[in-house]
Amino acid sequence: MTWLARLVLGFALLASGSALQADDSEIAIGSVIESELRAGETQGYTFAALALTIASIRVEALDDRLDPQFELVDASGDLVVANDDFAYPATLDALVQAFVLPKTGAYRLTISGLGGSAGAYRLHLLPGYDQLERRDLALASQDWEVAHSDAPVGLRASRFFSVDMTGSGASAVILGKRFPARREFYFEAAFDFVSSVNNWQLGLAFHFQSPENYRRLLLRKTGYWRLETVTDGFVEPLVDWSTHPAIEPGAADFRLGVLVAGQHIDLVYNGQVIDSVWDEQPAAAGGVGIAMKTDETFGGLLSFALLQAQMTVPTRLVEPVVPQRLLTKPAYLMAHDLARQQLAEGFGTIKVSLPESVAHSNRAGVTRVPIASGSAFSQFALSARVKLEKSSTGNGGCGIIFHFNDTEYYALAYVTGDGEFGVAKREGAGFAPGVYGRREPFADSTRQLLLIVSDEVIHFYLDEVYAGSLPSQPRIGSLGIAVVNYETVESACQFADLWLLSYDE
């Protein structure tokens, strides 16, 4: 962490004392803690983090009595993430994977037992993913091997595990032999005492199959970074030389990390995500390690100490975990969250953006108002804030129509003033069974809808909470907003901040 980042974090913590409570335990990202809850008890933990820090939280029940749940709030008390059962009934553990913290400051994590349940638990608060695969603090030279080098590489372990290489434009990869070959993971290394007479390039190698096939993240002394893929010995940039305000040029100590979720890659500097990339070519499982290059013009000696390396891996139950809660964000930020959680393939393209739109009807049934006329969509994510106004009693509601081909073949996501909600497909004269539920309606009748639609499944979120999924199939059709009246009632639906990310291209 640079001196500026430390100063910013220090001021943020002083300003965020409201997030702390006297009985909170102070912890850090990277902690694995065991404790026990008494019946009806809530335990609190506080930790500090910079904005754009990527982390996972898992509360693992250690006995059958406990059904754990947690909430994470920022210094203002605003909810960041929460979970109860991420994969019920397979497990009662609470889990949120690979989420990005929105602000610099203090965060408060509270853990309790659902329904007052009690028992022992293990808390995992880790960088990247929720399972600690390996953390290497006492690095030894025999645990690392030179997998590729254009020049001699020295590995030494005395006070520190140190590496050096001399040459002109020479490159090398050293692999951590105790780190398993994985396809999805978070890998991070802490560097110190980085020095070179001239420029240097230093970073991470991952998905290492052979010296001719791997990926690498390189950071230059000047503060620029580059993500490369090496295929059959040919080097091609996934992202060419770029920089970020978090990077301190010339810093002799820093941490670099990379998180891989399917084809989504997060690039991390000192714990903060500096960029996210969609890799068009899926990679197979491979090794991880350190990549380096000496100055290409003048050459010289590159040396550094490796202080720590760690890998975390995701929990998977056949398919990626569907988050129980997704907070509303602008479309471009939501695109990265959906890709990171593997709910969508790619970052998508914003095809629809409507600040305001209205639909009204006084008859029973579904009344459609087309939007984005002339466009059809197959796979997409759509978010909208909806407010229902009724001038008479009766169960009226609002919805989003998609995959519309005619009045007898379309899909509908809806919510009513009485709190009913669902996703259903119109097939001929009626609707086929789909997602259905009921929640307490809000006093102001404003609800937040989020749809994630692929060729295989439709995920529906209501008020940022997972409402259910419906199997899907490849289908394309137009889009519309709708009034959904169960009976004759005067209903007006106001849609605000409606956007659609298309994944069709």
Describe this structure in words.
It is built from 2 helices and 36 strands. With 505 residues, it is mainly beta. The strands form 6 sheets. Strands 10, 12, 13, 15, 20, 21, 22 and 24 form an 8-stranded antiparallel sheet that branches. Strands 11-14-23-16-17-18-19 form a 7-stranded antiparallel sheet, with no helix packed on it. The protein has a 6-stranded antiparallel sheet with strand order 25-36-27-32-33-34, covered by helices on one side. It is globular and about 80 Å long. It is 5% helix and 57% strand.
The helix fraction, in percent, is under 10%
Q: Work out the number of β strands.
A: 36
Cα Rg: 26 Å
Question: In percent, how much strand structure appears in the residues?
Answer: over 45%
Give the uncertain stretches in residue-range form.
Answer: 1-18
Layout of strands and helices, then pairs:
Blueprint: H1 3-15, E1 25-26, E2 31-37, E3 42-49, E4 54-61, E5 68-73, E6 79-83, E7 94-100, E8 105-113, E9 119-127, E10 131-136, E11 144-149, E12 153-157, E13 161-167, E14 171-176, E15 185-196, E16 200-210, E17 213-220, E18 225-231, E19 234-242, E20 254-261, E21 264-269, E22 272-278, E23 287-294, E24 300-313, H2 331-340, E25 349-361, E26 365-371, E27 380-390, E28 396-406, E29 409-416, E30 420-427, E31 430-438, E32 446-453, E33 457-462, E34 465-471, E35 478-485, E36 491-502
Parallel strand pairs: 1-3
Antiparallel strand pairs: 2-9, 3-8, 4-7, 4-9, 5-6, 5-8, 10-24, 11-14, 12-13, 13-24, 14-23, 15-20, 15-24, 16-17, 16-23, 17-18, 18-19, 20-21, 21-22, 25-36, 26-35, 27-32, 27-36, 28-29, 28-35, 29-30, 30-31, 32-33, 33-34
